[in-house]
Write the structure tokens for this entry.
Amino acid sequence: MGYDPLLHHRRSIRLKGFDYSSAGAYFITICCEDRLHRFGKVTDGEMILNDCGMIAYNEWHNLAERFLNFELDVFQIMPNHMHGIIVLSDEIVVGATLAVAQKESETRATARVAPTISDIVGAYKSIVSNSCLDLFKLKNKTMGKFWQRNYYEHVIRDENAYNNISNYILNNPKKWDEDKFQ
């Protein structure tokens, strides 16, 4: 079947015109393809991470080193998804480099721009899936597609919303048995 814009149109869930590199707090959910339990299991209301789960956990921690405007906040790795709050700050070291073209009079300045939520999530998904792929290869297993195509995000607008979302994330393992998407 070829491309049919009526059937294959995907509506963006992003806020139209919103700058996703701006300072603020963002609630993120990233799901595994087909909701496969890739990261471990919940036992007695606690998440028990397997090797892929440890990779997902450690790489979320490492994002603060990779992205200078990223602040580590509440997050939870679950068997088939992860939740996290990404806090972006205005404080980013902007470095400018000067590239001189072949001609004497042509110069071009390039500056690093603040990464967007999409940049951060994309890097995270790539790093985790590549590291997990290495584990699968060591065991002579096939991994298949690791993540769902997109991710869910919600701009956190006030302290009340932040508190509700933080509590939801922290209590997610305790409510796992009630999750209809497990």
Notes: The longest helix spans residues 117-138.
